[in-house]
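Q: What does the assembly look like in three dimensions?
Context provided by user:
Components: two
Sequences:
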Amino acid sequence: MGHPLSSPEHARHALLYMWRIRKFEEAVEDLFGRGMMHGTMHLSIGQEASPTGMCMAMTLQDQITSTHRGHGHCIAKGADLTRMIAELLGKKIGYCGGRGGSMHIADVETGNLGANGVVGGGIPIAAGAALASKMMKRGTVAVSFFGDGAMNEGAFHEAANLAAIWQLPMILFCENNKYGMSSSTEKAFAIDNLADRGKGYGIPAVNVDGNDVVAVYEVAQAAVDRAKAGDGPTLIIAETYRWKGHSRSDKNLYRTKEEIEEWRTKDPIPKFIARVVEEGILTQEQCDVIQNEAIEAIKAAVNEAVKAESAEPSGLLDAVFKAVSA
Amino acid sequence: MLTMAEAVREAMSIAFDERPEVFLLGEDVGIYGGAFGVSGDMYHRYGAERVLDTPIAELGIVGAAVGAALSGMRPIVEIQFSDFTAQAMDQIANQAAKIHFMLGGALHVPMVLRTPQGSGTGAAAQHSQNLEPWFASVPGLKVVVPSNPADAKGLLLSAIDDPNPVIFLEHKLLYKIPGRDPVPEGATRIPLGVSKVVREGKDLTIVATGIMVNKSWEVAEKLAAEGISITLIDPRTISPLDMGPVFESVEKTGRLMVVQEGPAQAGFINEVIAQMAGSSSFGSLIAPIKRLAGMNIPIPYAPQLEKAAVPQIDDIEAAAREIVKNWR
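A: Here is the predicted structure of the complete assembly.
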């Protein structure tokens, strides 16, 4: 895509996608609140800049793996909003036909290999996608999004090592939102800077303000360039924060109101608006129009998804295996 | 006559020649030729890029295979001992097995995980298990248990063709043994999910998997000389399971014995018994179903203890005699 400040079109894209993620998550929270969705949800409100910035450095053919908190990654990579909402509502037209729900949305057309309900589960898979890219000389990069919690999983260690020894075109993108459910990074790590882990694998690592879409894009583009030049993986640690609880059962017992309020002042969206207005790339009025566009897009997606046909249990048995072609 | 290790290598080589997207990865599969010599000289024939030595990182290896399979490759993963799949179980059971279903069918995982299993090598409890029921209990995995070189070759070729994850469980004690039947030349495939009637008899039906097929065969040979004739059925694919030939056979023999290496408790073979119990062929039984399985213990080290832990030829013979003589 390109640098968010390189043209009004690019700035518009960055802002629109951050608003889409924000408004999508708000709509999901609303639908849950009204009893229209079941199961659970993991909202990424406050973290919109990280997936948006990363995905603006990627092509449609570049691949991602995502997490339980994955709505933002799907949207940033270009997923269809109606099919996403429909999946959460258990509809036939949903991305997984109602079989996966919030934690398992994948989209082949946008290179999204799927969100994952297991912490760290997507990291080795992204390494494999990068291995395939390298073996098939495809010239694509595979990005694994994961949270700080995943960095203590064996899957992270094993995948990081494979990516390093095989010099895979891979980016390990950590959204450090400070908590693995209730465990703070202070409790779960004996190092202050998660990027220190990179050195242990021989992987260059970089810290970035995960709430600054421009800064995220810049480190992401550098990492993509390295990967595509055959220079191997990069570990990106994006510092961010989730405003909402881990899931809907969270009572926020492990953090203070003051901390949450402090991070709310670091909202990535107004920060970006202030910058593009100041630099004369977009006007405030144009920014307002973009916000409304996102609101309308989510409304339309919800309306269409609500009306869609429910997923039926018939055919479930036939869905376990892909049919063997003769 | 090829051994099973050679037959598996031949199947992999044929697949390598047929499809550029097939590759092998695992611990020591390269220069070393595999811990049991299965990949042998493939590293020298196909190069380091297609016969990929990995660090000791089962979860990472299987995960990388899943990701590569999602991205157009057809990986064959070798896990050095089936016991070590425990290290990789998230990628096997939560990822590979579920991706096609859970993600709505848009993606699939054409991957084969080959791994040696079973007891009899004095390697003790963490290198000797039979884990057939672990895999057979996960919807989304196909599970193949070859009992001879010819089947191993044909089934592996089909497993590599299959668009779904296939767990291919090779018994270590069979690696160096030639089969009773010659291995067909060329790329002859054996479809997954088709049980094989290994021999036909009228007095008793034995359903056995893996190495127990060979042990049961020896018993059938010996008892044939005494006038007891046995039908021996090898399911070959334990998931999906083809019970048709079992029902047909029991309708003729009226007696059923099931034999597996793994512990009786929650074993795969119990599924055969359960399906028989619920079938219309159940009424043909004139004897209680006999189950022979491993003891409900970890595999012990000392040879006399290890032998006691899993069914041996003598055990199968005694049980077969008993069921035929006591129920007429």
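Follow-up: Residues 17 and 223 of chain A are 21 Å apart (CA to CA).
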